[in-house]
Amino acid sequence: MFVYLNALFVGLLLLSNILAVKLFQIGEFILPGAAVVYVITYLLTDVIGEVYGKETARKTVQAGFITQLIGMLFIFIVVHLPAAPAFGLQEEFEQILGGSFRVMIASLLSYLASQHLDVTIFHRLKANHGEKKLWLRNNISTMTSQLIDTSIFIVIAFWGVVPFNVLIGMVITQYVFKLIIAIIDTPFAYLLVKWARKQEVHQEGLRVY
């Protein structure tokens, strides 16, 4: 089960980097497409930490960071390969996948800070409550880490690019949206933890057999 959770984590992480270029609007909220996907990665690290332990969750975060670096490297290489004459979308391809160095740095730094904070807070609460109150540590760790993630990313990526009041508005808007998603995904945390533990018991039984 861990393999699937880890693969899902890394897959969603890479997908969020691609989807970040799309902006969507709900009422007054203007958000990047990555906001829908990226917040789920915090749910997955919480589930992995709950079932497999703190160090395993940290290794998952580290694996995600390395995968992002490798992914960015290959995207950079492919973007700058000479386009075939039959391929008439090079400019669009560069706009969607090329991004900017500043945004990439902002993404990596916010990821490192927030994901490690999420794991730390989650397991400090777990040390106090044991296996009880999963909903509390899932929400507290995600809410805190998402504030750090959103603030670091937007400040580094957009400082000096947009007015300060717009910058603050972007932080608040994205953070509120991520809070809503974090609250909604709480039942899924329980379902995934239950499923993962059941699979671990099953695998352990097979090994004993």
From TrEMBL:
InterPro entries: YhhQ. The chain crosses the membrane at residues 30-49, 61-83, 175-193. It is found in: Cell membrane. Keywords: Cell membrane, Membrane, Transmembrane, Transmembrane helix, Transport. GO terms for molecular function: transmembrane transporter activity. It comes from the Bacteria. GO terms for cellular component: plasma membrane. It is a multi-pass membrane protein. Belongs to the vitamin uptake transporter (VUT/ECF) (TC 2.A.88) family. Q precursor transporter subfamily. Involved in the import of queuosine (Q) precursors, required for Q precursor salvage. NCBIfam families: queuosine precursor transporter. This is Probable queuosine precursor transporter. The lineage of its organism: Bacteria, Bacillati, Bacillota, Bacilli, Bacillales.
